Amino acid sequence: MKTQKNSDSELKNRTAQHIEGKAELPKLDLAKRIRNRSLSTDHLLELLRKETPRFWEMAEVVGKWVWIQFDEKQPPQITGLLSELGFHWNNRRQVWQHPCGQLTVSANYDPRRRYGSYFPADRQAA
C-alpha cells in the first residue's frame, strides 16, 4: 500500500534523508584533470612535491606510474583533489594510481614485482 505524504510532517522518506545527509562533492576542474593525466612521472612528482607535500611523502613510483595508498577511506575533498591531479581509484589494488601518460591494460600480475618500486621522498631524504 502506498502512503500519502503528509505535507505538515517533518518526516522524510529514505531517499530524501539520504540526499539531505550527503555532503556536497567538490567541483572538479575536468580540463585540469585531463592535462594532469598526461604529465610524465617526473613532472607529476614535482607537482606533488610543490603543491601537495603530504601526497608527495606517500607517493610510490611503480614502473612509470605513481601510486598513493591510504590506510582508510578518505573524505571527498581528498579524493576530489587526487582526481583533479589525474589519479584514479584502482579498486582491485586499493590504491590511487596515476598513469603518467602511460595508459596500459589491466595486469594480472603485481606491477611492483615486475617493474620495481620506490618512494621518491625517501630518496630525497637520503
How does this structure look, described?
The protein is an alpha+beta fold. It has one domain. 42% of the residues lie in helices and 13% in strands. A five-stranded antiparallel beta sheet has the order 3-4-2-1-5. The longest helix is centred in the middle third of the chain and has 11 residues, at 41-51. It is globular.
Give me a quick take on this structure:
This protein is α+β, with helices and mostly antiparallel strands and about 130 residues long. It is about 40% helix and about 15% strand.
Order of strands across the biggest sheet?
3-4-2-1-5
**What is the subunit organization of this protein?**
single chain
Number of strands: 5
- In the predicted model, the low-confidence regions spanning at least 5 consecutive residues are none
Taken as a percent bin, the fraction of beta residues is: 5-15%
Kindly state the percentage of residues in helix. Answer: 40-55%
Rg from Cα? 20 Å
Span between termini: 70 Å
Main β-sheet, in a few words? 5 strands, antiparallel
Mean pLDDT across every amino acid position: 85
**Class from helix and strand fractions:** alpha+beta
Number of domains: 1
Q: In sequence order, what are the helices and strands, one letter per element?
A: HHHHEEHEEHEH
Count of helical regions = 7
Shape verdict: globular
